[in-house]
Amino acid sequence: MTDMLVEELETMPPQLKAAARFVLDQPSDVALMSMREQARRVGVSHTTMVRLATWLGLDSYEELRAAYAKALRAPENASVSSDDRVREWKPARGCSPAIRVASMLAAHTARLGDPGSAEQFLAAAAVLAGSRRLFCLGLRSAHTVARHFASVVSQMDYHAILLDPTTGSGLGAIHRAGPDDVLLALGFAPYSSATIELVEMASRRSVAIVAITDSRASPLARLARERIIVPTNSQSFFQSMAPALSAVEILAVLIAERTGKNIEQLRQQAEEQLAAFDARRKPFPIDRQGRSVAA
User: Rounded to the nearest 5 degrees, what angle is found at the Cα of 110, between the Cα atoms of 106 and 114?
Assistant: First the structure.
């Protein structure tokens, strides 16, 4: 049923598409909330939810809810999901913003350890570990995450290439990429058209795509061989990149283990490189007040 929603998403009318996205992204809510409450959350009428069930070939929306409730009761989902932990957590009166943010980040990070997420990570790491060249792509806030991953895997002797359409960096190489190469693409709503275009181009060249994104319905997820879904909602006005950053670090650890890398040796090499950099750098002169003085 989930696969059908993903496949049919782009052919749906706008309101039906919004309802389908909710079902894909909030499976626990589908199982536990009433149809009318779900419709209110989506911002559509309850008849739209009924139309979605009909679109899927079901007799009623209750059939859809029952299917998700059955999946939620499965042994691997028996514990409280991290989505529920985020939703049920209530800050104590007088709780500082720092504690609220830290608690939400902890819940989001815990979500990455759920059984379904663990399977996604293992599958994604297997694809990445087998790459000839490993391209890394992320724009806007995701660029920092892509750069961090490229830096880490480069320390494992991977040919990692950071793509940046704004400067043209790496674009020549990706245009010559092929089936032995892999592209790790990060993208979150609202999705960058430049990211989507590069992923589509790589897909046409038979490059394996691993996507880190915020929904199974995202354009990156639909093009990917393997996908990892991470939350981006925060306690403020901006998208949080902390879960995505945690995700790439998990992938790096899995790649190192899968390829038999000596973790202690890699750590020592990284420390030696940093020490060499610090040894070559001259400290800025400072005055008596501790302020930097131009040389």
Answer: 165
- Dump pLDDT digits (tens) for 189-228: 888 889 999 999 999 999 999 999 988 888 898 889 999 9
| Contact status, residue 245 vs residue 239, Cβ threshold 8 Å | no
Q: Per DSSP, what are the bridge partners of residue 244?
A: none
Neighbour-count burial of 205, counting CB atoms closer than 10 A to its CB (0-12 exposed, 13-18 middle, 19+ buried)? middle
Helix (H, G, I), strand (E, B) or coil at 213: strand
Residues 234-293: tens digit of each pLDDT: 767 788 888 898 999 999 989 988 877 666 776 777 677 666 666 555 566 666 666 665
Pick the CATH number of 2-76 from 2.60.40.10, 3.40.1180.10, 1.10.10.10, 3.40.50.2000: 1.10.10.10
Comparing C-alpha atoms, which of 211, 165, 161 is closest to residue 188?
211
Place of tokens 């610090």: 278
Label the pairing between strands 134-138 and 182-187: parallel
